[in-house]
Design brief:
The complex is a heterodimer of chains A (281) and B (486). By secondary structure, chain A is of the alpha/beta class. Chain A has one domain: P-loop containing nucleotide triphosphate hydrolases (Rossmann fold), CATH 3.40.50.300. Helices cover 31% and strands 23% of the residues of chain A. Chain A contains 8 helices and 11 strands. In chain A, a hairpin with a 7-residue loop joins β8 and β9. The N and C termini of chain A lie far apart (80 Å). Chain B has 486 residues and is an alpha+beta fold. Chain B has 3 domains: 178 residues, Alpha-Beta Plaits; 98 residues, Dna Ligase, domain 1; 95 residues, no CATH class. Helices cover 31% and strands 29% of the residues of chain B. Chain B is built from 13 helices and 18 strands. In chain B, strands 13-14-15-16-17-18 form a 6-stranded antiparallel β-barrel. Chain B is elongated and about 110 Å long. Classes of the chains: A alpha/beta (281), B alpha+beta (486). At the A-B interface, α3, α4, α5, β5 and α6 of A face α12, β10, α13, β12 and β13 of B. β10 of chain A pairs parallel with β12 of chain B.
């Protein structure tokens, strides 16, 4: 009985051409326009996402520390620059390691790096209530530092809007990975609506890097990462950081590309396992 | 008709050009001391050609120049004759076929004069080496003509042109036409140096950027129109603001690319003044542009558009005003072993895009696999390239208290909220790095780029699951958290 009712309802919706607006229980779209996506540079992830991160939408890469958020974001940007596109990184707390960007294979001349405030106590001098898991048990920090973090985020958001309004960038990424949870929650939701309106219909893929889901447009994807560092070598003297195993969970209600996959990352530094005094030159 | 004016040695060609402009706006300059004037239509003002030549000579004498003047039907004939004959030379076109009089007049001119009046084919755009090569080839060509027994232009002009071209090439054919007194190129007038400047005296002093924006708009728009008429762009925009306290606020804006869009120029000027405002009210506003040849752009229908240089310049000006000078640009690596060393370079991407077209995308990328979205959770991905693991640098390393046992860190704690530290699960190190030690003690307030460093680095995974890069200063044995692998 229920099946019959459901079939009748779906048929009625289809007749009135409402099937694509009122339900997400549709078969995935077979026709995929590759030009409407920005490839991540990782074959497995691209295959999973059906060509990459969608343009004209707000997507996000979220996860805890050392989960591979920055690695994935830099890969995405590097792949775009290799295709000849311009990318912009709004580095809210000035955390970009240029060597990592080079190791990802980026063409640096096509990257716009907007350096935010290098708050010396960004990650650390924040309200304990802001830190996931810390709770409100700790003493409350000073209001001055709180204001500094909020001002830094506010300024980064303004820069983000300026770059989006300028247009012409393939990817515009906003790095909020070190922003405290409460600071993210204090950002008015209309901010993300404005961002979505600014990027809608353009060729720009908008990417947020954050510790937890903040905002995603209906057509965007959320890449929720969990990862752990992998080590090589058995002995103390031969051990070194070999890379990271990233488990990527894809959330995308409209495009139905949900699922989970694992991506491995390696360190780009070719360090010998032994003690090597390296003289500067 | 053309008049060639050839001055005595040591004369200033600038003065000679001024003399020519007194007669005709179409004056072509030939270094080092010759000009050619288009004197068509001057007979109604001065009289016949001889009178015109005499007037030119008199005007030059008024400026202490001793000149020869030759008037002929073609530029080339006038130039050859003015070098060949002293005083005034007038070639009357007569009633014969066009150019016949010129050809007859130059027939007695020696062929060596070809070397003097024939510049390198591309003018001054050739390198010095190419010019020397061209001159050497020209001299060799004259020697060849002399070996053929030719002495004058008339003898050269009497040769069959096809045979000359077959033996001497395109340059030889060109010389044959010159020997006949025929022009192959039009006269290119020398353009006077123009000053691109607009000023406005204000009845009432203005303070603040909003009223100034209207004034700037009023000045920059005619300036842009002037530049457009001359096909020029702005290389440097100078703002001179005379203030009520009798000082001048001066600002020069170096533009990344030649531009003349009034809106972009006004925005850039306003943003520059916003970050460096004048100290008092403004009495007089002057905007001056250093002109440069304008850009030639070719857009493509098949490539993804990239922002125009004007848009990038405006964006960078806005970002610099928001984030601070030098905080926006292209990341750049620096030649240093210092951990985390980097710089910000000028963001000036190529205007021509290399972005793949949609068609190229379709060709290059394989269609998405049908099994997408059905991967078994946690299964490793075959054939995928492993990305390089990124590091997040703390620009201000976080001081840490580290318990060391048997030479290895075993516990990390910091006073910073949000990073409590924890037990070291795994560690690797130390890797020693040092540099700029030769600068030690020389400058106490040296910039960070030259301050020495000497440290042992460790990579540690703490009990909270995160992996950090830490280091201990070898001098003080103090520990710091330098970055986070993410």
């Amino acid at each position: 009985m229920a099946k019959i009712a459901l079939a009748t309802l779906e048929s009625a919706l289809r007749d009135h051409k409402l099937d694509r607006t009122l339900t997400t229980a549709l078969p995935p779209l077979d026709r995929v326009d590759p030009a409407a996506f920005v490839p991540t540079g990782l074959e497995a992830l691209d295959a999973h996402l059906r060509s990459g991160i969608p343009r004209g939408h707000l997507s996000e890469i979220v996860g805890p520390r050392s989960s591979g958020r920055t690695t994935l974001a830099l890969q995405l940007m590097a792949a775009a620059t290799r295709e000849g596109e311009l990318v912009a990184l709004i580095d809210t707390f000035d955390r970009l390691d240029v060597a990592s960007l080079v190791a990802a294979g980026a063409d640096l001349s096509r990257v716009l790096w907007v350096r935010g405030q290098a708050v010396s106590r960004t990650e650390s001098a924040v309200d304990p209530r802001w830190v996931p898991g810390e709770g409100a048990l700790r003493s409350v920090r000073s209001g001055a530092a709180e204001g500094l973090v909020e001002r830094t985020i506010d300024r980064a958001l303004k820069a983000f809007n300026l770059v989006l309004q300028a247009g012409g960038f393939g990817i515009v990424a906003l790095d909020l990975a070190d922003a405290p949870r409460i600071a993210l929650q204090r950002i008015p939701f209309t901010t993300w609506m404005r961002v979505q309106r600014a990027v809608e219909g353009s060729d720009t893929a908008c990417v947020l890097v954050a510790p937890e889901p903040v905002s995603r447009s209906s057509g965007g994807v959320t890449l929720a990462l969990t990862g752990r560092t992998t080590w090589s070598g058995q002995t103390d003297r031969s051990r070194r950081v070999a890379g990271s195993d990233m488990d990527v969970r894809v959330v995308s209600p409209r495009r139905r590309v949900e699922g989970q996959l694992r991506v491995g990352a390696t360190t780009h530094e070719d360090r010998a396992p032994d003690y090597i005094p390296r003289a500067a030159c | 008709m053309f008049a060639a004016v050839y001055a005595a040695e040591g004369s200033n060609v600038g003065v000679l050009v001024d003399v020519g402009r007194a007669f005709s706006p179409r004056v072509e300059e030939h270094l080092p001391r010759e000009v050619v004037l288009d004197v068509d239509g001057l007979t109604r003002l001065f009289g016949d050609a001889r009178t015109i030549a005499a007037e030119i000579r008199r005007a030059a004498a008024d400026r202490t120049l001793r000149v020869r003047v030759a008037i002929a039907g073609s530029r080339v004939a006038a130039r050859l004759l003015v070098r060949h004959r002293a005083g005034l030379t007038i070639i009357d076109p007569g009633d014969g076929p066009a150019g016949q009089a010129d050809a007859e007049a130059v027939a007695q001119v020696p062929i060596e004069l070809l070397l003097e009046i024939m510049p390198p084919p591309d003018g001054t755009t050739l390198s010095a080496g190419r010019v020397r090569t061209y001159q050497k080839e020209s001299q060799e060509r004259v020697r060849t003509l002399r070996r053929w027994g030719l002495r004058t232009m008339g003898e050269l002009a009497a040769l069959p042109p096809d045979d000359v071209a077959a033996r001497l090439g395109a340059a030889g054919a060109h010389w044959w036409h010159v020997a006949r007194g025929e022009d192959h190129e039009p006269l290119v007038p020398t353009v006077a140096d123009e000053r691109f400047e607009q000023s406005l005296d204000l009845e009432w002093p203005i303070e603040g950027l909003e009223p100034l924006s209207f004034v700037l708009g009023r000045l920059i728009e005619p300036l842009s129109a002037h530049l457009e008429r001359r096909d020029r762009g702005v290389a440097v925009l100078h703002l001179l603001l005379r203030l009520v306290n009798k000082t001048v606020h001066e600002q020069s804006l170096q533009l990344p690319t030649p531009m003349r869009d009034p809106k972009a120029l006004r925005t850039i000027a306003l943003l520059a003044l916003e970050s460096n405002p004048p100290a008092a009210g403004i009495d007089r506003v002057t905007v001056t542009a250093d002109p440069t040849p304008a850009r030639v752009l070719q857009h493509s229908l098949l490539t993804r558009p990239v922002p125009m240089p004007e848009e990038i310049a405006t964006l960078m000006a806005r970002l610099n005003a928001l984030m601070g000078e030098g905080r926006c640009g292209a990341p750049a690596v620096v030649d240093s072993w210092r951990p985390g060393a980097s710089a910000v370079a000028l963001f000036a991407p190529e205007t021509t895009t290399r972005a793949a077209t949609p068609v190229q995308c379709l060709i290059a990328r394989p269609p998405p696999p049908q099994h997408a979205g059905k991967r078994v959770p946690g299964a490793p991905v075959p054939g995928g390239r492993s990305p390089a693991m990124a590091l997040r640098r703390f620009r201000f390393p976080i001081p840490a208290r580290v318990t060391v046992e048997q030479g290895k860190p075993v516990r990390v704690a910091t006073d910073r909220r949000g990073m409590t530290g924890g037990r070291v699960e795994k560690s690797a190190g130390p890797w020693r790095t040092s540099g700029q030690w030769w600068e030690d003690g020389k400058t106490s307030q040296a910039p960070s780029a030259v301050t020495p460093w000497d440290r042992d680095e460790w990579d540690v995974t703490l009990s909270d699951g995160a992996t950090y890069r830490m280091f201990s200063e070898r001098g003080t044995r103090a520990w710091f958290v330098d970055g986070l692998f993410d």
